[in-house]
């Protein structure tokens, strides 16, 4: 070990894409035995820096040092030989092979030239034990939860590399207990002297597990600091470069004036999807929907929008009985829907930002009254500005935008249709703090403008802050409708957790 | 302003076409000579237009299908059916316009059937259109009762071999169709919707695009184009040959579309560039013929071209040169 004291260091890294400077003379030092959080809004340069540290990209300037020695990393395999391993948000292992095979893929123990399955499984069992997993190493990886798969991915990276572990948003698809378990493993690895880089959008997690933090903004290094002497607000201020006040959870404002009834779902449901539910929605109100993943919240949204048609119940829009069997019916009635899985159901990756914004409006106008290019530009430009969409050009493919900006585009897509009712399914999941704040601001603005909204979200603080009522889903059933002053995240969690005998709507 | 006009011309497809023509010229110095004879133009270049027209017409229909992430394998068989219908009807004494209309209707019906299988029954396009690819030729043989039905109807022969203002009729029809379909998809929202469905059908449905209607439309158009090509081929040989008319041409049409920069994974497409793709294929065929190489070379050269195009469109190449970007810009 040399005198720099860093297991891995980046000095003055510059990376340029076309005429966009992604990283501008960024320094980053990682000590052995520390958990180092890397923070920044989407587009700040986090992933670019990681890709340089793991050899996926080559820097245009500056250098990477491992144990104080300059190294040239041509590819991730080479980074591995320097002890640098990476685990990405989406587990990229082979779900249809056994856990042991996944752990040993590419370096299986062999006997007479054949894979020595027994030795491999014994070894795998030993490794899994160290990570607190008592599972059969010959079982298929895909049969286990994402959390277990994530741990297997970490185990593989650590076994292969052993010095530096880079975790790129490892907690995005984990629940609270699973996150806690992951943290135990991270702390354990830290105690073993590993250097861990931890990338996440969740500030709580940063404070829970990290020792130091490096913050990037617009490709520049803002600061590297120990977390001990920092508060949440400090971190956010450094990330955004401005002051953002976090409103704590308060009771739902009952005093908010209630508009006239817009929608009335009566006994509305679909077999094998969602039990019949009753819900009345007024103009100018936000209904928050809480519930765990798989509780039926997304199914409820899809039925409301006609993406799956309801097979029982009645819907009245402004007092008139209306049937919504498919999305076009819903859109014709002024509905809009931002789906949970942005990539699979929201964006048109290869199409431009402009086309992604106008497509629902164009769908409403039909095949033959096409918006011409100038009209499209005008509409896209208007929303690009009001929603603060960060894109180099409105003609660039949307897939090149960050998640937060993609979400703003999809929201703009619906706002362009001049909707009366919006359904937002996890609108703030997995996006950066700035976009997050923008979307919450937009939800508040739309409510005040008289729109009716249904917002599904796991962020209870946030739901409480903007909703006038909260419905709770459990086991594909609407189990509670909460309103009044005493609503806080604790009550909601209780409603989610309660058994069937609990209070129901 | 000049740049705006010239930039679309600087795309790989047009450059490739010019390149193939230049090679032809090197092998056969008279390649670019065009003469005026009997009120029409003659020359190898005109021949490329004339012979390339049927595949170009198929490509005009095929490009929309491929842009929706589909494929239409039945177009060759539909050509044979349309030719058989037109030929047997004029032989039976029906006036030519009625025979042509009936042939077009058969093509459209075939396309709509494919569209129904793909859009409503959700069958994979390659399997759905395989049904008609096999059955269509059988139906054509039933219509012609196994014979090559020859005819002397002047209107049908004019469609296959005549000329308009000196330009072969087949080329005139292909150009007219290209302009018509380009206007149809680009002056309406249909082109955008086709691309949206091809890129992400789930998102398209949620955005309120009637993807079923759209799919039925593009397959219907493909069937209609195939019928037009079938009538031209029948008129050209003055008869309907159910066994050989349009045989394997579906593959040429797919190749033309892919050369034209439309990915088989759907999404961005360009009708004019698909036509250019068809002309590139025909320019190579004609070049090999006029320069005296044995026609067997044709297949090998075509295979080399396919390989070349696939390499250009491979992810590796697009990392080096952003080729697909040109297809995107071309229709703007």
Automatic annotation (TrEMBL), chain A:
Q: How does it sit in the membrane?
A: Peripheral membrane protein
Where does it live in the cell? Cell membrane
Give me the Gene Ontology terms describing cellular component.
Answer: plasma membrane
Domain named ABC transporter is located at: 8-243, 258-500
What are the boundaries of the signal sequence?
none
Keyword tags = ATP-binding, Cell membrane, Membrane, Nucleotide-binding, Repeat, Sugar transport, Translocase, Transport
InterPro entries per UniProt: AAA+_ATPase (IPR003593), ABC_carbohydrate_import_ATPase (IPR050107), ABC_transporter-like_ATP-bd (IPR003439), ABC_transporter-like_CS (IPR017871), P-loop_NTPase (IPR027417)
Location, primary (coarse class):
membrane
Instruction: Tell me which PANTHER family the record gives.
Output: CARBOHYDRATE TRANSPORT ATP-BINDING PROTEIN MG119-RELATED, GALACTOFURANOSE TRANSPORTER ATP-BINDING PROTEIN YTFR
- UniProt name for this protein: Sugar ABC transporter ATP-binding protein
Organism, scientific name: Devosia ureilytica
UniProtKB/TrEMBL annotation, chain B:
Query: What GO molecular function terms would the record report?
Result: transmembrane transporter activity
Q: Where in the cell is it found?
A: Cell membrane
Q: According to Swiss-Prot or TrEMBL, what is its membrane topology?
A: Multi-pass membrane protein
CC terms in the record's Gene Ontology section: plasma membrane
State if Electron transport is listed as a keyword.
no
Claim: Nucleotide-binding is one of the keywords in the record: no
Q: Which UniProt keywords apply?
A: Cell membrane, Membrane, Transmembrane, Transmembrane helix
Q: Enumerate the CDD domains for this protein.
A: TM_PBP1_transp_AraH_like (cd06579)
Positions of transmembrane segments: 9-28, 48-66, 73-92, 98-120, 127-149, 155-185, 214-235, 247-266, 273-293, 299-318
What name does this protein carry? ABC transporter permease
* Natural source organism: Devosia ureilytica
